[in-house]
C-alpha cells in the first residue's frame, strides 16, 4: 500500500504531526466495514504518520458546533470503537504533547489550528450545519479562553467539497445568503454554496491573519479517485481521517 496523504507546508515547519488520509488507506469511520478492518486502516495511517494508534482521541461527530478540550487521560477514546469516542463533538483541542486529535471527513472540511506561542492544537469537522452554527467562532472563542491571540494562530483547511459540487436546498441557501452572501451562487434555479469561502470569512472576521492560513484546493468530488465524497457516493462512502498533534 502506498503512503500518500495530504500534508500542509505551513504546519510542517512546526513540531507537529498532521495529515489527511487518502482513499488508499481505506475507510476510517466505523459503521460500514467490520470494526477490525477500520482499526487496521487507522493503524496503517498512524504508521505512516509515525504515531501510535492508541495515542489518538477521536470525536463522535454530530454536525454541530461543540468544541471539547481533551488531555492525556482521553487517549484511546474512539480509536477501537465508536461508543468510547468524545460524544456530541465536532471539534477537539489539546494543550498536551503526544495527544493526537482525529476527526473523519468525506466532503466536510477538516480545519486544523496551531498556536505556536501557547502550544495548543485544535481540529474541527466543519460541514454546512456546523458552519451555520458558528463552529469557527466557537473554536476561536475556546482558544481565546485558553490565552491564544488570534493573530498568532496558524490555520490549515483540508480537502473539502467545492462550490460547483455543493448544490443545496432553498432553506439551506437562504441561511447562507443571510450569513455568508458572498459564498452563495444561484444558477439555473439551483443554489450553490462555497463552504471554503464561508470558513475563510469567519477566520477573517475573527482577526486571523491571511498569511497564517493554508487552504487545500482538493475537492473530494472532483478528485474522487483520491478521496471519498458523500455527494458522489452516498452513505457508504469511505471517510478520510484528519489528524493533528504536537510531538512529545
Question: Could you characterize what this model shows?
Answer:
The chain has helices at residues 9-12, 35-49, 128-132, 135-145, 170-179, 195-205, 230-233; strands spanning 5-6, 16-21, 56-58, 67-70, 91-94, 100-105, 109-115, 120-126, 154-157, 167-168, 184-187, 190-193, 213-215, 240-246. It has 248 residues and is of the alpha+beta class. It has a single domain (5-162, 195-246), classed as CNF1/YfiH-like putative cysteine hydrolases. It has a 6-stranded mixed sheet with strand order 4-5-8-7-9-13. Strand 7 and strand 8 (120-126) form a beta hairpin. The longest helix has 15 residues, at 35-49.
Computed over alpha carbons, the radius of gyration is 17 Å
CATH fold naming = CNF1/YfiH-like putative cysteine hydrolases
Low-confidence segments, given as residue ranges, are none
Termini gap: 28 Å
Shape, per Cα inertia axes: globular
Question: What's the total number of strands?
Answer: 14
How helical, in percent, are the residues? 10-25%
Amino acid at each position: 500500500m502506498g503512503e500518500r496523504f495530504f500534508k500542509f507546508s505551513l504546519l510542517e515547519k512546526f513540531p507537529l504531526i498532521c495529515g489527511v488520509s487518502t482513499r488508499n488507506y481505506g475507510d476510517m469511520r466505523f459503521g460500514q466495514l467490520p470494526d477490525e478492518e477500520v482499526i487496521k486502516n487507522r493503524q496503517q495511517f498512524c504508521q505512516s504518520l509515525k504515531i501510535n494508534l492508541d495515542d489518538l482521541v477521536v470525536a463522535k461527530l454530530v454536525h454541530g458546533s461543540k468544541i471539547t478540550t481533551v488531555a492525556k487521560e482521553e487517549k484511546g477514546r474512539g480509536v477501537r470503537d465508536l461508543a468510547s469516542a468524545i460524544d456530541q463533538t465536532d471539534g477537539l483541542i489539546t494543550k498536551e504533547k503526544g495527544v493526537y486529535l482525529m476527526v473523519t471527513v468525506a466532503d466536510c472540511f477538516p480545519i486544523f489550528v496551531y498556536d505556536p506561542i501557547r502550544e495548543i492544537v485544535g481540529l474541527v469537522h466543519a460541514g454546512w450545519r456546523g458552519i451555520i452554527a458558528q463552529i469557527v467562532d466557537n473554536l476561536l472563542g475556546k482558544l481565546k479562553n485558553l490565552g491564544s491571540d488570534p493573530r498568532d494562530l496558524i490555520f490549515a483547511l483540508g480537502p473539502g467539497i467545492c462550490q460547483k459540487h455543493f448544490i443545496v436546498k432553498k432553506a439551506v441557501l437562504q441561511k447562507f445568503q443571510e450569513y455568508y452572501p458572498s459564498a452563495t451562487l444561484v444558477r439555473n434555479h439551483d443554489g450553490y454554496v462555497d463552504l471554503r469561502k464561508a470558513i475563510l470569512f469567519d477566520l477573517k472576521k475573527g482577526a486571523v491573519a491571511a498569511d497564517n492560513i493554508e487552504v487545500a484546493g482538493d475537492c473530494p468530488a472532483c478528485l474522487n479517485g483520491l478521496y471519498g465524497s458523500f455527494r458522489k457516493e452516498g452513505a457508504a462512502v469511505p471517510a478520510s481521517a484528519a489528524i493533528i498533534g504536537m510531538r512529545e
